[in-house]
Structure formats: structure tokens, C-alpha cells
Design goal:
homodimer, about 475 residues, alpha+beta, 15 helices, EC 6.1.1.22 (chains A, B), ATP-binding (chains A, B), Asp/Asn-tRNA-synth_IIb (chains A, B), cytoplasm (chains A, B), aa-tRNA-synth_II/BPL/LPL (chains A, B)
């Protein structure tokens, strides 16, 4: 017999249900009682808003009302009436309340008071039940859906690139090994090396750092594709910006050059942010207030000039600033920050990699808007980026966002076989192992481009959460693989 | 300067472009030439259909026409005119052809002839350029998008559950180890064991076999959630039905019982299949013909009674047959197959696990439609399934599809703490390590349910591909991790 005969609170709030008999199920957020009446605010996860249940102690037993404490799960049958109080236009007068599951106030960790984000990270299995994390994960969902909708509507095809891979030629970072060998007693070859022929895949394998190379293969058949999957870095980075496991979106497009790539990335970012603004109003209003409260505790010079919602609208509505690395170096060299030696890393000559402080200066102080930096020195970029005619730079782009820094990295890819092979040799990347990648340049090559977006960085930007561990349900970082 | 000033072939075919000057880019599929004219069929991946380019040797140089061989990539500028021939209503008269990338006929492996699927698997980086695999991956994309759209429209939230996990308590299968330890010389503890405290996560970790348990945590806050991510099995199964790395969809819903779960799964499957029928007409027409040709080579008793499209329509339009395991055992025991000992595993008594041959008998011979089998013996199902009042069975469901067998497995979850803990102890599952999972039963528990769908099995069913390695771009199986 079907149990799920309920109306979601989101639906209750969207339309007029006055006078209707309904069943609502959800978890108690707060309860206020006096001897005449109990007001129970319940939440079912469909929206950040609670719905108020009014319980008359003559109708609902004392035992039930006692058990309806914070965190308990209730099934409430009753009638929707106009609300007496302020804040909400209607409320539910309970005819019957069933306790689906109790939450002992002495042991339930999420009592109605302010908890630190650090504490909530330790109970990540329960933090999803709070206002903040409910909002974050609903926004995360909306952004993920917007990603799929954007690309689907444009005729891109979603490709699932491999997670386990034998290709580590990219040099994008330290990798996790994947094996079924007995670690205590691995089989060895005659010369004492690990015998990977005996491993599951009969070779050394690791977790992918990027789906780009496989994405390129697919784009050479399907035209325009994107990936959206987990990627991994085994770097011992204990920062608020790094995860060992995170989700990446990587579109790859045949027939795109560097400018087409920039146009796509800008349009895409504006689309997904606008989508969140349109579809997550209640959650973003809450997160906007939350961010404003957080600001107060920051040193004055680190505060955002704009509030969260204003930042999102600003990005959605304004053109990104496009300039070359070479132009950016000139701006940085001549900046007061540099002249007064306020940068930790002074910008002295063309060719240096930009630090986070430089990126933030360009975005937050100089241009005061998102920046697309292009045409970096080839020495500081990956082998597959297309070489420009100057012989010094490649057709790379990084997109820099306020507060986040680099949110997108991409490039036109080097489609010319000879130039690509030469660059790989210069960078000591084994061309034999990459025969399949080079085949895309041997057969039916075409100008093509793509970029990668770290999904958690995007969720951070849109939700205003300061620590990347607070925008993924169960974060993986050095020493942490709980839940 | 933006390069991507082209019109996609899909768009060219959808509307009337007669008389327009356009640029088309794509790869040559076939070329027919005589001394007066060349007909070049090009494909850009946007659709399975090629577009015919007509090239006059007085206009296009001999060298260019020679290089426009199968697999070469072209940029063609010209005018759309009414087609002289049959098959297509319009064609492109070339004013200019640029060879973006050649494909030497002596070395390009994909010449226009029939290639075996086995051969194409060895060149998986190129097979995406064939009609069959183009169709498969476009349908795969459409199905993935339909999954997201279905759940989004119903108010479910997409959760990214962890890929790397320390929890292996589920017993769903053999796992891959994930480590950064030096395999040749791993650190050891005083008693000679591997010192996992020195590993990246300071504990033993592996690749997830399912996101279900974490999905349940999220459902207890957000109400209705789903996962769609990679899962892994380190089983040495070299069959046409098994992958070491595959994608799973796992919805988990608070306030759902077993029947709600069945209703959702049936509605969901019908939705995504209908979506493919509506949105992938050309690709499915092609795959339908392809499947019909394959049928001819099968032994008569293994042939499908219905063609691919008819199977899809049948599933989308008919109610699934629901029955209990106990009822199924009676049917199987009394079947002619069983009496005549034609089953490899004879069905003799209640309690045995069903084999693939039994599932297929029920679906393909007895009911001739998808079957939802429910209420299995608890001994053959996982610890988290809700125990029925008979003390013998659990509120499990498996959905069986023709040709595929089990496509969905799910259950109402055991929400009663004491019963769950007892079952875990009976099955030797460590309850201490699972404190976080048990917390969902300690605090605000509610009836809830969920299921898992192997995405590749769904893609197989919809595309009619016989081998699961042919519905994922770069399959991972024992001994295989290429590309």
C-alpha cells in the first residue's frame, strides 16, 4: 500500500491550498509550546522554508507533542488555514500527528542553535539537514542541471570518460594508484619490480586527473561533447580551495578556435549563474544573508564590495574582460601593489606564472569584473595547447572570478601533428603511449578547443561558501574519507 | 577571429535552407567521382545523416578532391540547392573546399566497409566516427539527459556521492584499492601489516561499489535525491554483461514504501525510454535496422520476437507485471522448462537465488513483458532491505527486462534501528564502523526506499547492442584500460 500520499512543502507554498485537507511529512526544526497550543515548524527538504503546524493539546496527545522534538520525523494530517501570525500566509492545523522517527534531544547533535562549519563537517551525514547545507545542495543540484541543460540545448553530447586510466602522461598532478594486487605481498618480476601484468588491468593504473584527452577523441566524431565526472588529485593540499576528489566539466569542440572557446565559456558561465538566480531564489536569499553576516567577521580589507546576489547578477550581466597574459604582466608590473612591494611574489618579468594574489588583483582591484586571460607563455602551460605564431605563447585561456581565482582553464588544442609531436618531445612526454591521441591529428584533424571547469569552484562562487569542503556532500581531503 | 561560422548538418536537415550560402564542416564518409562531378557525403556528428556535397572539378581542384578521402575533415562553402538524386531533399554545391585534415587511405583504419565490433573495440578512439557508435553515443547522451530531466522535474536533487570510500561494509562485490603508498616498499606497522596511517587518507580506501548508503543520508535531509556516477567492481568477469567501471543511477526517497518505489521505477523507465523514442528517431531507426540484421545471424530460438523499436514501444506502453518471488518460484517450478529439465539450474525449492535463465523465462516466455519481482528471501538479499512481517522475506524488488535480465534492483530500506542492527550482526557487518549510517535510524527515521539502475544496461536495452563494451566510450574490463 503506497505510503507516499503527501504534499511537499514547496508545493504547499506555491499555490493556494486554503481549506484543503492534506498530509505533510518532514522533520521538526523548532517547536514552541504553551499550555494552549504548540507551533511546530517542519521542513521536508523540498525548500528552505519550513511549514508551521499548529497542534491543539486537546487534539494531539501530550506524549506525541513531547516526542515531536527537533530532528524528529513527523507525518501530519490536517487542514490548511490562513495563518494568524506573520511570516507565512497559511499553516496546517493538525488533526493527527504520527511520529515516524524520534530524535532524542539528549543525543541528537543538531539542536536549534548556531553550529560551526568545522563541527558540521564532522557530522557531514547530518549537516544536510541544516538550513545552510540544504540550501547549498539544492543550489548545487540546480547548477548541475543547468550544466546539462545548457549543453543539451546547444547540441553537445555528454560523454562518460574513464575514471580508471593507464594514461598519466598529462602531468596534471599527482595521481592515486588503483590496484587489486595484495599490498602486503605483491607479485614481482624477475628483476624485482612490481609485476603489474598480474594486476586487474595487466598494467599500472590510476584515477583520472582529467577527461580532456578522451573528450577530444569523442569530439572528433560527435563534433561537440562535454564531460561531467569526478577527477582526482593526490596532492597533500590542506587548503580551503583543494579537494582530492572533485567534479569537472570539460567541453571539447571540433571546429572551435580560441575565440570561439572564450565565447562559449563566457556564455556558459552566465547561463548557469542566471539559471541559479532564477530557480533558487529562496535558497540564494538565505545564502546572501548568511554571506553578509560572515563578511562582518572579516578584516575590512578582505570584505567583498558586493553582496552575494549582487556579485552573481554582476557576473551574469557584464562582459568579461579579455586580455592577453602579456598585457596582464604590464598591468601588474606597473601596479602600485607591485611598486610598493605589497605582492608576496613581485612581478618582474614576462614568463613568470601568475600567483593567486596577481589574479585577484586583476579581477578584484583593477578590472572589478571576471577576466579571461589568454595567450600564456608556452613554458607554463600543457603540451596540448596550440602554439601561437610568435613562437613564445600558446592559445590558452584562464577565466578568473572574484573571490575564487581561476574557475576555468582551457585552450585551443594543437591540431598540427608535427608541432604537437615536437612539443611533446621537448616536454618528455612519451609519444608512443599516446598513439591514440596522436591519431586524432593523423586522421581528419581539425581546429578544436575546450576547457575545464571545476564544479565545486562554481558552487562555491554561487553559494558564497568560503571552504570548498562545504559544497560537496562528503569531501575527500588528506586524512579524510569518512562516510 | 572566430572560426566556428558553420551550420550543423542537423540544423540543415531540419529546416528549408534552399538558396542559402552556408559553411559546413565535417568528416568525409564516402566519395563517388566521375570526370564531371564528385559526390562527397560528409558527417559532422550532429546527426547520423550525412549531407551530400556536390563538387565540380572545374570549380574545385583535383588535388583537393583527391585529399577529400574517407575520414578527411573538410570545410565546405557553397550554396544549398534542391537535390537531383533521391534520398535527400537538398545538397550543397561547393564553391570552395578546404581540407582541414587529411586521412591517408593507406593507413586510416576506418575505410567504408563493414568492420567487426571486436575490431572496432581495439580502435575505440576512432569507432566514435562510425554510424553505429555515433548513434549509440547520441542515444546514450539522450538517456543521460532524460534521467536528469525526469528527476529534476519531479523535485529530486542530484547528489554526488563519494567515489573513494573507506566503507566496504556493503559486500556488494570485490573492490579496487586506492592508494598513494609505494607498492614496492609500503610502510609497515610493528606487527608487519601495511601501515595505512601513512596512506593519503590515513586508512584503507577503495573505489565505491554503490552510492546508496550516502544517498540515504542525503534523502533524510533533502527528501528525494538521486545519484548518477561511476561505480566499480573488481570482478574477473569477462562477459558481455559486465564492466569493471560503469555508471549507476540511484534514487533514494524519504517517505516511500515498497509500492511507491515500484511505481517510481516503472514510471522512470517508461519516461526515459519514451524520451529516447521521441528525441532519437534517426539514430533508433538506424539501430533498429542494425539489430534486425544481427537477428538473422542468431539461432532461431534466440531471436527476439519483436524488433528493437517495437520492444521499446512495448515497454513504454505496457504495465510491468508485478509478482512476488514466491509466486515466481511456483511458476518456474511448474514450467515445462523445469519439468523437462531444460533449465541448467532446476528450480526445486523456495529460497534459491534466481539465475539469468529463470529471469529470462519469466520475462520473455511466461509474461512477455517487463517484470517487477518483489519480496525475496532475506538470505539472498542485502542487510539494509526492510524485513517483511513473515520473518522470511524482505521488501526487495528487481526489475527484469527482455534480453537484459535485471536492470533495476532496489528495496524499501530497513528504517527500524533494532531490526537493522540485528540483521547486520547476523550478517557479520561491523555496526561500529557504520555509526553514521545507523544515525539515520536513530534520529528522525522514516520509511524510505530506493533503487539502483545500471546505466549501461539501459543503454544496451535502448540501442539493442549485445555487448556492454559497445555502449560505453572506453570500456574497462579485466586486462583492458586502453585510451
Amino acid at each position: 500500500m503506497a505510503f507516499n500520499k503527501r504534499i511537499k512543502i514547496k508545493a504547499l507554498l506555491e499555490d493556494d491550498h486554503l481549506g484543503q485537507s492534506v498530509t505533510v511529512m518532514g522533520w521538526v526544526r523548532t517547536k514552541r509550546s504553551n499550555k494552549n497550543v504548540s507551533f511546530i515548524a517542519i521542513n521536508d527538504g523540498s525548500t528552505i522554508k519550513n511549514f508551521q503546524v499548529v497542534a491543539d493539546p486537546n487534539q494531539i496527545s501530550e506524549d506525541i507533542l513531547k516526542k515531536a522534538s527537533t530532528g524528529a520525523c513527523l507525518k501530519v494530517q490536517g487542514q490548511i488555514v490562513a495563518s494568524q501570525g506573520s511570516g507565512q500566509s497559511s499553516e496546517l492545523v493538525a488533526q493527527n500527528i504520527e511520529i515516524l522517527g524520534e530524535a532524542d534531544p539528549d543525543t541528537y547533535p543538531l539542536q536549534p542553535k548556531k553550529h560551526s562549519l568545522e563541527f558540521l563537517r564532522e557530522i557531514a551525514h547530518l549537516r544536510i539537514r541544516t538550513n545552510t547545507f540544504g540550501a547549498v545542495f539544492r543550489v548545487r543540484h540546480a547548477l548541475a542541471f543547468a550544466v546539462h541543460k545548457y549543453f543539451n540545448d546547444k547540441g553537445f553530447f555528454y560523454i562518460h570518460t574513464p575514471i580508471i586510466t593507464a594514461s598519466d602522461a598529462e602531468g596534471a598532478g599527482e595521481t592515486f594508484k588503483v590496484t587489486t594486487l595484495d599490498l602486503k605481498n605483491p607479485p614481482k618480476t624477475e628483476d624485482g619490480k612490481i609485476d603489474f601484468k598480474a594486476d586487474f588491468f595487466e598494467r599500472e593504473t590510476n584515477l583520472t586527473v582529467s577527461g580532456q584527452l578522451e573528450g577530444e577523441l569523442a569530439a572528433m566524431g560527435l563534433g561537440e561533447i562535454y564531460t561531467f565526472g569526478p577527477t582526482f588529485r593526490a596532492e597533500n593540499s590542506n587548503t580551503a580551495r583543494h579537494l582530492a576528489e572533485f567534479w569537472m566539466i570539460e567541453p571539447e569542440m571540433a571546429f572551435y578556435d580560441a575565440e570561439d572557446n572564450q565565447n562559449l565559456a563566457e556564455e556558459f558561465l552566465k547561463y548557469v549563474i542566471s539559471y541559479a538566480l532564477e530557480n533558487c531564489k529562496d535558497d540564494l536569499d538565505f545564502l546572501d544573508k548568511r554571506a553578509a553576516e560572515e563578511e562582518v567577521s572579516k578584516p575590512a580589507d578582505q570584505r567583498n564590495e558586493l553582496g552575494l546576489l549582487d556579485r552573481l547578477k554582476f557576473v551574469a550581466e557584464n562582459e568579461f574582460q579579455r586580455l592577453t597574459y602579456t598585457e596582464a604582466i604590464e598591468i601588474l608590473k606597473n601596479s602600485n601593489q607591485n611598486k610598493k612591494k605589497k605582492f608576496q611574489y613581485l612581478v618582474e618579468k614576462w614568463g613568470v606564472d601568475l600567483q593567486s594574489e596577481h589574479e585577484r588583483y586583476l579581477v578584484e582591484k583593477h578590472f572589478k569584473k571576471p577576466v579571461i586571460l589568454t595567450d600564456y607563455p608556452k613554458e607554463i602551460k600543457a603540451f596540448y595547447m596550440r602554439q601561437n605564431e610568435d613562437g613564445k605563447t600558446v592559445a590558452a585561456m584562464d577565466i578568473l572570478f572574484p573571490g575564487i581565482g581561476e574557475i576555468v582553464g582551457g585552450s585551443q588544442r594543437e591540431e598540427r601533428l608535427e608541432l604537437l609531436v615536437n612539443r611533446m618531445k621537448e616536454m618528455h612526454i612519451p609519444t608512443e603511449e599516446m598513439w591514440w591521441y596522436l591519431d586524432t591529428r593523423r586522421f581528419g584533424a581539425t581546429p578544436h578547443a575546450g576547457f575545464g571547469l571545476g564544479f565545486e569552484r562554481l558552487v562555491q562562487f554561487v553559494t558564497g561558501m568560503g571552504n570548498i569542503r562545504d559544497v560537496i556532500a562528503f569531501p575527500r581531503t588528506p586524512g579524510h574519507a569518512e562516510f
